[in-house]
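ASSEMBLY PREDICTION REQUEST
Request ID: AP-0331
Submitted by: J.K., bench scientist
Number of chains: two
Total residues: 231
Priority: normal
Notes: Please return the full assembly, not individual chains.
Input sequences:
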Amino acid sequence: AQSVTQLDSQVPVFEEAPVELRCNYSSSVSVYLFWYVQYPNQGLQLLLKYLSGSTLVKGINGFEAEFNKSQTSFHLRKPSVHISDTAEYFCAVSYSSASKIIFGSGTRLSIRP
Amino acid sequence: GAVVSQHPSWVICKSGTSVKIECRSLDFQATTMFWYRQFPKQSLMLMATSNEGSKATYEQGVEKDKFLINHASLTLSTLTVTSAHPEDSSFYICSARAPGTGVTDTQYFGPGTRLTVL
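STATUS: Completed
Returned structure:
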């Protein structure tokens, strides 16, 4: 079955510390991967996406993610977080055989001053 | 960037009544719109895919007679929750994709509508 797993429901970190949000997906021949962010009381915004090519994808707000096919992972990273990064982050996957996007359960990133 | 709006942002209704939620793409035309449901602290669950001028495609387990979807124009899709019950209380989110694009293109999400059924 097609699925995506976010291992951490909550990740607390101190401001200016690095962070990694984990995401694993069920394997397939080809896959498209996304990270979305949902700020409080707002809709989802696309942070970055992997379609093909370079496995290191850079997104907005200083975030990046690395596609690792052997580990079926697409972890999101930022070297130094800010208070404004406090939000819910969703990993999502789509497969070439379908047009819909499947979302993970989300990781709540909370930044401590 | 592309903007998707939803109206209302929140609604409270009595059990047994029907509620309509609108989803609009404000600055682009969307042949495909999606409706999601999000429970507290949970992920977005796709309910249905709505294509302009045709019937919506519902995901398994979603009652099409209860959640009526209409996509009458390239900028508007509506979700009507019929005979709402407390278990229908949830956060409903729509998204829109521009025409001529496939799965790799960006979906633009609305801010969501919080429905509370008393």
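REVIEWER COMMENTS: The interface with chain B takes residues 9, 32, 36, 41-46, 49, 51, 90, 94, 96, 98-106, 108 of chain A (CB under 8 Å).
SIGN-OFF: pending second reviewer
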